[in-house]
Amino acid sequence: MDFQYTEEQLMLRQTVRDFAEQELAKDARERDAEERFPTEQVKKMGELGFMGIQVDPKYGGGGMDTVAYAILIEELSRVDASAGVICSVNNSLVCYGLEKFASEEIKQKYLVPLAKGEKLGSFCLSEPGSGSDASALKTTVVRDGDEWVINGTKNFITNGVHADVYIVFATEDPSKGYKGVRCIVVDRDNPGVKIGKKEKKLGIRSSDTASIIFEDCRVPVSNLVGEPEKGFRIALTILDCGRIGIAAQAMGIAVGAFEAAVKYAKEREQFGRPIARFQAIQFMLAEMDTRIHAARWLIYHAANLKDRGEPYEAAASRAKLYASETAMFCADRAVQIHGGYGYTKDYPVERFLRDAKITEIYEGTSEIQKLVIARHVLK
Ligand code: CAA
To answer: Which atom of ligand 1 is nearest to the CA of 362?
Structure first.
């Protein structure tokens, strides 16, 4: 099997790279230090069509394939992994889910502005007591006439403070287990929505992560996404797509760290020569390069399966598992190659190392990815 980028994918890579280097690179370090959301940059990402890159153009999207989506997230994250996850969540956890499962009315009202980047979305599944065991959620939804009434607290919600639209998972009947879970769209300006604790994080610090509290939050019954009993399956289907996005984010972090390490190794002189001339450094670079290539193929394989309409759940988990380990490996080696300087804020590699860790945790920990893969191996 061979793979070649299409002209369209190559043009996209260049466009995203130019954007990232001109608009994200200049203050990525300051935004990280100040935990400042990239509001202006996200607006521009919307104008460039990055926020709904795969959505059908009739709903305001870019109509591109999943490989293009992976290129987009990799290129953003190569410079700024916070921008990468903001964009990834809007594309896969929100737009993809709405396009695949929501009614035409929801698509017109919510998907169109989300895909155009006029609004920002977030995905509210995790709770204080349910992370990996996602179906054990406690947020309730009760039908009252023409409305749903939602009560509960969601945790670790990416884009939580800045989102205009929330995709919320809540149970209508806890005795039914995952079959009681419903998927409902909620507007940020609903009086029943309150922003809770904003997390202070190790990495991806300029993305926002918050608790969202729903208190007698009333929404029209027409805001239900998909068939009522399929709510949990909708969440897992969306997460399969999201895992390709996080794998691509990890890939971008790995590449950013690798490129910084190569540059530094060529410039830094010790023992009378650039450190790139020493095998100890060369072996680290060779291992980073090999893992990056392997991770990229796993991501493109999962993306390609999805684009062909074939099952890709295990492929997405393999890609995320391996790419996130690759991000950690490459960022760690990049700091090592930089020596003492790598441990300071003067170089970007310490940020890559902090940012890499989350890719092993969110949208399913590495242990959950192994569980998904093992189920496929054993079934
Ligand atoms: N797609 C669609 N349906 C699926 C599915 C998939 N990938 N995997 C399972 N299902 C279906 C099953 O077929 C079953 O439905 P039926 O009975 O109708 O066939 C139903 O879902 C329940 O499946 P399981 O019994 O396998 O469910 P489980 O409780 O054992 O959980 C799990 C499976 C893989 C552990 C799952 O809970 C999981 O992925 N957990 C991790 C949650 C996660 O990734 N959270 C991330 C939060 S969001 C986030 O991080 C976003 C962010 O901020 C960036």
So the answer is: 50
Nearest residue to 116 via CA among 49, 16, 38: 49
Q: Could you say which of 227, 267, 363, 367 is catalytic?
A: 363
In Å, the largest CA–CA distance within the chain is 79
Pocket test for ligand 1, best of 236, 305, 357 (most atoms within 8 A of CB): 236
What 3-state class would DSSP assign to 309? coil
Name the DSSP letter for residue 172. Answer: S
The superfamily CATH assigns to domain 7-120 is Acyl-CoA dehydrogenase/oxidase, N-terminal domain (1.10.540.10)
- Name the residue ranges covered by the structural domains of the chain: 7-120, 122-228, 232-377
Residue pair 15/312 in contact (Cβ under 8 Å)? The answer is no
Q: What is the mean pLDDT of each run of 10 residues along the chain (379 residues)?
A: 88 98 97 98 98 98 98 98 98 98 98 98 98 97 98 98 98 96 98 98 98 98 97 98 98 98 98 98 98 98 97 98 99 98 98 98 98 97
This prediction has a pTM of: 0.98
Which CATH code fits 232-377? Answer: 1.20.140.10
Contact indicator for 189, 65 with CB cutoff of 8 Å: no
Q: Is 99 assigned a catalytic role? A: no
Give residue 130's region: left, alpha or beta (phi > 0; psi -120 to 50): beta
Which residue in this structure is represented by tokens 């804020």? 345
Distance, CA 113 to ligand 1 centroid (Å)? 28
Q: Name residue, tokens 């009378």.
A: 272
Length of the chain: 379
Query: Domain 122-228 carries which CATH code?
Result: 2.40.110.10
Give 46's contacts (C-beta < 8 A, 6+ positions apart).
Answer: 116, 117, 118
Residue pair 94/122 in contact by the 8 Å Cβ criterion: yes
